[in-house]
Each structure stands twice: as C-alpha cells, then as structure tokens.
Design a protein that fits this description.
This protein is mostly helical. The protein has helices at 3-16, 47-75, 85-120, 126-139. The protein has a domain at 47-139.
C-alpha cells in the first residue's frame, strides 16, 4: 500500500464519521454539564499519583497487622474468664476490636487495590468505580455503636 492510498483511506474514514472522539480535552462549551458543576480545565489527574496512593493505602495493612499482633500479645495473659464479669467483658471488647481492626486492614487492602487499578486503568467508568466502592462499603459495613445513642430523643 502506498502512502497516498493510506492517506486516502484515513480521509475516507474521517468523512464517514458522524462524531469524533476527543481524548484529553473538554468540549468547547463546558457550561452544559448535567451535574451542574461544569468541567474544569484545571482538573488534572496523574496515573502515578493514583497508583502511589493505592500502594500507600494497601501498605497500611502492614502497620495495622503489627498493631493487631501487639494487641493479641497484650491479651494473651488473660486466661480463663469464667466467673469473672470484668474479665469476660474485657475479652468481649478485645474480640470486638480484633474483628474491627481486621476489617479495617481488609478495607485498606481492597480500597488500595481499587485505587491502584483506577490509576492503571483510567478507562474505568465512574459508575464502575462507584460500584466497586459500594461493594467495599457493604463488605466492611460498620456495626452500630453500642452506647451513646439518644434512644430516639
């Protein structure tokens, strides 16, 4: 295929296109946004920033794991709690916090992974990212606090 044929094919394809794809640009009139905010020419996003933030968030798992190990070591001397109300309450509190800290660690891993993937795959739709965030929120849904409620007041 000669260069002239290639140029003609490109020109024909451009003439057939009813709409053009615009990458890395904004429409000429950004005021028509349905979200009400319009597009901002100052908005910039860098893949490396998302990837680093995701890696750092996932890295929190290590520190949380160390803290959980120290918590478990500090709890190890409790022994049998039968018949001791304060010891039983303390064990229940420990179990609750261990479960909570474990979930925080998991959430950091999942969220960090999503942030890294978002950085690598800028092609993900906002709705896809939102769906993944919703899954994380459901998976690690916090429990209601035990005290401090106003009981409907």
């Amino acid at each position: 295929m000669s260069w002239a044929e290639w140029e003609q094919l490109k020109a024909d394809a451009a003439a057939r296109a009813s709409t053009q794809m615009r990458l890395n640009s904004i429409p000429a009139d950004p005021g028509g946004s349905s979200s009400g905010g319009g597009l901002s020419p100052q908005l910039k996003s860098k893949k490396q920033a998302w990837i680093k933030a995701g890696g750092d968030t996932k890295g929190l798992k290590d520190d949380i794991g160390k803290a959980l190990t120290k918590l478990e070591e500090g709890q190890s001397g409790l022994g049998d709690t039968t018949g001791l109300q304060s010891a039983t309450a303390q064990k229940e509190l420990f179990d609750s916090w261990r479960r909570y800290v474990h979930d925080v660690s998991g959430r950091c891993g999942d969220l960090g992974g999503l942030m890294e993937r978002s950085g690598h795959e800028f092609w993900m739709l906002d709705s896809d990212v939102k769906a993944q965030l919703d899954k994380i929120s459901i998976k690690y849904q916090d429990t209601d606090p035990l005290g401090g409620h106003s009981k409907g007041k």
